[in-house]
Amino acid sequence: MPQVNFDGLTINYDVQGDGEPLLLIPYTSADHACYAFQLPAYTEHFSCIAIDLPGSGESDKPVGPYSTDGYADQVAAFMGAIGIESAHVAGVSLGAAIGLHLAARHPQRVRSLSLHSGWHATDSYLRSVVEQWRMMASVLPTVADVVTQGIFPWCFTPEMYSDRPEFVDALVDFVRGRPAQPVDAFLAQIDAVVAHDASAALRGIDVPTLITFGARDLVCSTRFAGPLNAIVGSELVVFEHLSHAGLHEDPETFNRATLDFLLRQRS
C-alpha cells in the first residue's frame, strides 16, 4: 500500500483502476477499504484513489481536535504530494462534509463533487446522535465495538438486520479486520462532525455536484437536501429503500446512480 509524507504527516492510500482520477474520502472511523463495494464498478472507468484520513487506517494519528475544513486542507495537500492536480471527488458522511470544504477552499482541485449522506452544518439532532457515540467510546472495549454496536443500527435498515443477518455478521467481521482506530482519534473525528459548518461555503461551490440520501436515514436525512441543493446546478438522488450507508446495503443501486453521474462528468 503506498504512503506519502507531507507537512509532517504520513498518509496511507490505495490506487486502483485507470482513467481520470477519482478521490474517495471515507466516513467517520473508516479507512480506504470502506469503498470495497464500489471499486469493482468505479475502477472500470476511473483511477480510484482512496485515502486513509489522518486519524484512521494506517495514516498518522495526530493529536486532535480535527475539523472538516482542516481535513479539506490536508486532502488538498495530499493530492499535491502525489501529483494529482485535480480529481473527481466523492465522500460519504464525514467524507462528504470534507468534500464540501475541499471544493470551496481548493476549487482548482475538484472536477466534480459527489456528496453521499452528507450535511451542510451540524444540527441539534445530529449532535445528539454522535454524542451518544462519544459516550459509548468511553465504556466499550474498542472503537470497532462502538461502530458495530452503536453506529451500525443508525446506518442500515431494520430489514437488513432481519432478512440478511449473515451480511450484517460479514460487515462486523470486516470492521474488526481493519486497522484498529485509537479512541483518541475517533473522538477527534467526532469533534470534527460536531463542529462542522459549511453553510457559508455552499454558494461558492461551482462544480458539477451529485447529492444522494437514503430516505430512511435519520442521521443525515433529507432535511439537509434543501440547503445542499443551494449548490448551483446540483443533482439530487434519494434512495427510497436505504438508510445512511446505502453504499454497503445495496451497492448495485448505489453504484448505478453514482456512476451515471460520474461518467457524465468525464472530460
> Strand order of the main beta sheet, please?
1-2-4-3-5-6-7-8
In the predicted model, the low-confidence regions spanning at least 5 consecutive residues are none
Main sheet properties: 8 strands, mixed
Helix content: 40-55%
Along the chain, the helix and strand elements come as EEEHEHEHEHHHHHEHEHH
* CATH topology (fold) name: Rossmann fold
Residue fraction in strands:
15-25%
The chain-level mean pLDDT equals 97
Give structural notes.
The chain has one domain: Alpha/Beta hydrolase fold, catalytic domain (Rossmann fold, 3-Layer(aba) Sandwich), CATH 3.40.50. The protein is 42% helix and 18% strand. It has helices spanning 39-42, 68-81, 94-105, 124-137, 143-155, 158-163, 165-177, 183-195, 225-228, 246-249, 251-264, and strands at residues 3-6, 9-16, 20-25, 46-51, 87-92, 110-116, 209-214, 235-239. The chain has an 8-stranded mixed β-sheet with strand order 1-2-4-3-5-6-7-8, sandwiched between helices. Strand 7 (209-214), helix 9 (225-228) and strand 8 (235-239) form a beta-alpha-beta unit.
